[in-house]
Automatic annotation (TrEMBL):
Residues 274-323 form the HTH luxR-type domain. Keywords: DNA-binding. The keyword DNA-binding applies. Gene3D superfamilies: Winged helix-like DNA-binding domain superfamily/Winged helix DNA-binding domain (1.10.10.10). The lineage of its organism: Bacteria, Bacillati, Actinomycetota, Actinomycetes, Propionibacteriales. The keyword DNA repair does not apply. InterPro entries: Sig_transdc_resp-reg_C-effctor, Tscrpt_reg_LuxR_C, WH-like_DNA-bd_sf. This is DNA-binding response regulator. GO terms for molecular function: DNA binding.
């Protein structure tokens, strides 16, 4: 079941303030009530004042007034579905526009000459699309740290056996895998996502996932030769600066995405929590923890903040005391 916190996170992405959301829940129980009666019950100074307060909700389709002047308040699930559908349509239109521009820009923008002293090879290579899964499996086996993925369409097909084995082994060893899916995957492939969750993968959803992407922060990244879904080949990137940039991009999308509580089986989170607590108990600084776990400094600080919220602590010392009391360390 989706929590109120998850709903708030989703609504905030569409520009809805906590005050406006609170008003939605106040009028939700007055579905079908006349505006005059609702205004009086909610302590508004007449219908005009109530209509002004409801304007943001009306604009986003969360509240309507029928011809008889009665409130119509659809369930929150319907509101979110409508907003996500609109967002998907806007994203698809933007993707079409970018692709149109991509076909014309090379012909109208002159290429600037590059001097021999300016051209430096980057660490990476092009590989066939058919080798992507085995390449990711090998990278997982050879590396440490988080495994980050954008999967806009791969959930339609079974996971390659080599990649499945490598990912399962990594998760069992205590590593964390975080993956973003489009929201439509919840309806079109619920069993596939449930199976990934049972493996220990952490899952969040977005209205639209713009491209395929696979990143192991600090060391590896696999990107399409052209951003999107269908590609003829992929680029294996090892240049540290580019890998870090791609990891930060996934982190940004992750922070904006909506959790799916029914797919959070807590296995991956509990393993990650134990590793983090052991580092904190040893007195390691955030920078050292990031190097040890193979994640970014931003990720470490986000995890520490989440841990303190879970423990109800105001400081790291209090978090350590509470974690010990609960038997987490």
């Amino acid at each position: 079941m989706v929590t109120r916190r998850a709903v708030q996170a989703a609504l905030s992405e569409f520009g809805l303030t906590l005050e406006t959301e609170d008003l939605y829940w106040r009028v939700h129980g007055r579905h079908g009530q006349a505006l005059e009666d609702a205004a009086a019950a909610l302590d508004y100074d007449g219908v005009a004042e109530l209509q002004a307060a409801l304007a943001p909700l009306v604009a986003m389709g969360a509240v309507a007034v029928d011809a008889a002047g009665r409130l119509q308040v659809p369930p929150m699930a319907h509101v979110l579905s409508h907003l996500l559908d609109d967002e998907v349509q806007r994203m698809e239109a933007a993707v079409r526009r970018v692709r149109e521009l991509a076909t014309t820009v090379p012909h109208v923008v002159p290429r600037l000459p590059v001097g021999p002293d300016e051209a430096e090879p980057l660490a990476g290579r092009r590989i066939p699309e058919g080798e992507a899964a085995t390449t990711m499996a090998r990278w997982i086996e050879e590396s440490e740290g988080d495994i980050l993925s954008l999967r806009p369409d791969q959930w339609r097909q079974p996971t390659h056996p080599a990649l499945q084995r490598a990912l399962t082994t990594a998760l069992r060893s205590g590593r964390t895998a975080r993956t973003l899916y489009p929201v439509r995957a919840l309806e079109q492939a619920p069993e596939a996502l449930a199976e990934r969750a049972r493996m220990g993968e952490e899952i969040r959803v977005l209205a639209h996932v713009p491209t395929r992407l696979f990143v192991i922060p600090l060391t590896h990244a696999l990107v399409p030769d052209m951003p999107g879904y269908e590609t003829a080949g992929v680029l294996a990137v090892h240049e540290r600066a580019l890998v870090l940039l791609l990891a930060q991009y996934v982190e940004l999308l992750w922070d904006r995405a909506v959790p799916v509580p029914e797919l959070d089986l807590r296995g991956a989170r509990e393993r990650s929590r134990r590793l983090l607590l052991s580092e904190l108990a040893a007195g390691a600084a955030d920078e050292q923890i990031a190097r040890t776990l193979g994640v970014s400094l931003r990720t470490v600080r986000r995890r520490v903040a989440d841990l303190m919220i879970d423990l109800g602590a105001d400081s790291r010392f209090q978090a350590g005391v509470e974690a010990a009391r609960r038997g987490w360390i």
